[in-house]
Structures are given as C-alpha cells and as structure tokens.
Design brief:
The structure is a single chain. The chain is α+β, with helices and mostly antiparallel strands. The protein has 5 helices and 10 strands; from the N terminus they run ααββββαβββαββαβ. Strands 7-6-10-8-9 form a 5-stranded mixed sheet, covered by helices on one side. It has a 3-stranded antiparallel sheet with strand order 2-1-5. It has a two-stranded antiparallel ribbon with strand order 3-4. A hairpin with a 3-residue loop joins β3 and β4.
C-alpha cells in the first residue's frame, strides 16, 4: 500500500494542531486558577455589607473596641467596618468623627443618617455589630488567673471565679467585693464565697454587668 507524502504531512499537521489546542486550554485553566475572575460586585465594600453580625445581648450598647459594619445602600465608598476607639468615637468617610459609645446600633444609625444628609439625599444606612469586645468583666487578687474576661452571656460571681481558675489558698473567702458603676455612681457589693458555696445567702451571687470588677483579697 502506498501512502503519499501529502497524506502523511496532513496527518502530522492535524496532530500538531490538536496538541497546540490542548496546551492552550491547559495554560488558560492554570491562568484562571491563579487569577480567578471576581464575581460581579465582589468588592471589599460588597463583602463588608454581606457579612452577618453577631447576636446581641439584651440591653446591648456600643462600647470601646467593638467592631461595627457601617453599610450605606449603593454607596461602596461610604461602606466599611470601623472599630470604636478608646475615646468612644468612630471615623467615617466625609462625615468624620462621631461618638458611638453608649449608643444602640439603631440610635447610632439615626446619628449617621443625620450627619450624612449633608452629603446625600435620603441616605439609607445599616449598622451591623461585627464583634463585641467591650463587654468585659474583671477579676483581681487571689485567684489563679486574674484579668479581663469577655461577658458573652449571663455570668454570676461564682461563675467568674471558676472561670478564673478558682481562689488561691491565701484568699479571704468572706471579704470579696464587686465594684460597679451605675448611673455614674460607684458601688461596692459584698460577696461571701464561703456562704454561697454552702448554699447560703445566694442573693449575693449576682449576675455581673459589663465593667464590673471582682476583687478577691
């Protein structure tokens, strides 16, 4: 059987073409994996607006170090996450500094809307609490691990002492004090660990509030 040179060269050319196409597709796939195309709207602002917030405790108010998501409808330049500074303020584009500490998310939203009306007509704003860092209680003195503890839910004095590793052998169990500030007034509440541990005077085992300091002498 005779095979012409033209037939052989045609088959070779076809094979080379298939090989070249395969290499091109492989290179494109690798390029796509290394440089994925962003989905429409997947900007930092869009990502910020899409992230959910945390579940808020009852009677929550914004405090220092809390992380807030400020979302302006259809305005990515104004949208973003901010952290409440130790001075209680946040800084927003165009608006500048606003006091956030002591506000609820809803009342802060109203404050932002009022400030934003200078730059926008009928601004639509949402305030989302991303992280709560302000709800802390403190324990000092004769416990295994003194320090600050996040108040993520209801917690009593006994529970905080347990969380701190318990009392040391030198602790005065009958003279523990809870320092609390209410309505600008400082209060000192007494706590007798020995009694509560025996099931006596259980009303002393109060639920702690943010900012409370338990002192174990």
């Amino acid at each position: 059987m005779r095979v012409s040179c033209s037939s052989v060269s045609g088959r070779v050319a076809a094979a080379l073409a298939v090989c070249a196409l395969s290499l091109a597709q492989s290179a494109a796939a690798q390029s796509g994996a290394q440089n994925p195309v962003s989905a429409p709207g997947s900007t930092p602002a869009a990502a910020a607006s899409a992230r959910p917030g945390v579940e808020l405790p009852a009677e929550y108010v914004i405090g220092s170090e809390d992380v807030l998501g400020i979302v302006f409808w259809r305005d990515p330049d104004m949208t973003g996450d901010v952290t409440v500074r130790p001075d209680g303020k946040i800084t927003l584009p165009l608006i500048g500094d606003l006091t956030a500490i002591g506000h609820t998310p809803e009342s802060l939203k109203e404050l932002i809307v009022k400030a934003a009306t200078k730059f926008q007509k009928d601004p639509t704003v949402t305030v989302v609490v991303r992280t709560i860092n302000s709800r802390k209680v403190f324990i000092t003195g004769e416990v295994t691990t003194p320090g600050a503890y996040q108040l993520v839910g209801p917690r009593t004095v006994m529970q905080l002492i347990a969380l701190a590793g318990g009392l040391t052998e030198y602790a005065d169990k009958k003279s523990i004090t809870i320092n609390r500030v209410e309505n600008g007034q400082a209060r000192a509440l007494k706590f007798n660990y020995a009694d509560v541990a025996k099931g006596k005077n259980l009303s002393q085992n109060i639920v702690l509030k943010p900012g409370d300091t338990v002192i174990v002498p």
